[in-house]
Design goal:
oxidoreductase, HGLS, EC 1.13.11.93, about 30% helix, alpha+beta, iron, dioxygenase activity, eight-stranded mixed sheet
């Protein structure tokens, strides 16, 4: 991947960590408000054994055109100390993804949640709009006006589109070529999914297989693309995700249709081989498997797969 000319990161200053955490809290509230099934799972996890939760990553989708791509979100978070951790390219999906590691924050092992716990990694994807057909490019660019991407973070916290809502005709035409682009055009910067840090759970759910069994027993639909349990090639990154719930959305031309919204994920990062003999209470996040796996990520993205009618 080439250089991206993204802003340089800086460390926390003054009360900025509190502000950053408040931004995340509002992004989470919007996501839960707009996705009832994800909220139900989120509440269930906390209710079992009074579990305390931490987050592995928050994921967003963007469109690379007129300043609406990855940088429209990442520049804000990098101002608060986030740094590029790595990237993944998905040529068939005409998609690029960058993930960002959080700034150092002094967090005791027993702290949890967004208010006091570890900050989540960020995963931000962008559709490479210029690689789509001219017809699809025209649809996207009709809605995304120059400079609008500057309001990306505000849009994420409010759950409101920066651009005008698309018509059903434009949405379905775009979805024929890129479901990813169509999803982003209608949902905008609302968080695509969050991932729990399974390795930080204290009780029943500290084993991702127990999470999988519990969700299946309670009737939640899980993403089976590539297997319900996604395992990295080194066996140290384990992921399970739900299938996006389908919600009624009214489009600009008055049509109301059921389309995929957001989903929820569970991620377990195992301890790296060189640290396997360390006492459990001394293991930190950097002793565990970092980064993401291309194949697993490709399968997880299928959680928002559209209906065949597109």
């Amino acid at each position: 991947m080439g250089s991206l000319d993204l802003p340089h990161s800086s460390s926390f200053k003054g009360g900025s960590e509190t502000f950053l955490r408040n931004v995340f809290e509002n992004i989470l509230k919007t996501y839960l408000r707009k996705n009832p099934t994800a909220k139900t799972i989120w509440e269930l996890v906390q209710s079992v054994d009074n579990e305390k939760i931490c987050y592995d990553h928050f994921t967003f989708r963007t469109l690379k055109v007129d300043g609406y791509g990855i940088d429209s979100l990442s520049s804000f978070f990098m101002d608060y100390g986030y740094k590029i951790g790595g990237g993944l390219d998905f040529p068939k999906k005409k998609l690029r993804v960058l993930w960002f590691s959080p700034p150092d924050a002094q967090v005791p092992n027993d702290n949890h949640g967004l208010e006091n716990g570890p900050l989540p990694r960020l995963v931000i994807a962008e559709v490479l709009v210029d690689e789509l057909s001219l017809e699809s490019q025209g649809i996207v660019k009709k809605y995304l006006k120059p400079q609008g991407g500057k309001q990306a973070v505000l849009s994420s916290t409010l759950g409101s589109l920066i651009w005008e809502k698309p018509t059903w005709a434009d949405f379905t035409q775009l979805a024929k070529e890129s479901e990813f682009a169509a999803w982003t055009l209608i949902h905008g910067y609302t968080m695509n999914h969050l991932a729990f840090a399974v390795h930080r759970f204290k009780h029943r759910f500290k084993d991702i297989n127990c999470v999988k069994e519990y969700l299946e027993e309670n009737g939640f639909k899980l993403n089976s693309d590539g297997g319900i349990l996604k395992v990295s090639q080194d066996g140290l990154l384990l992921q399970v995700s739900s299938i996006s719930e389908r919600l009624a959305v009214e489009f600009a031309d008055g049509v109301t249709e059921i389309i995929p919204a957001s989903y929820i994920e569970f991620t377990q990062r195992l301890v790296l081989p060189e640290f396997k003999d360390m006492p459990v209470d001394e293991i930190k996040e950097y002793h565990r498997r970092e980064a993401f796996e291309l194949d697993s990520a490709n399968h997880v993205m299928e959680s928002t797969r559209f209906a065949t009618q597109f």
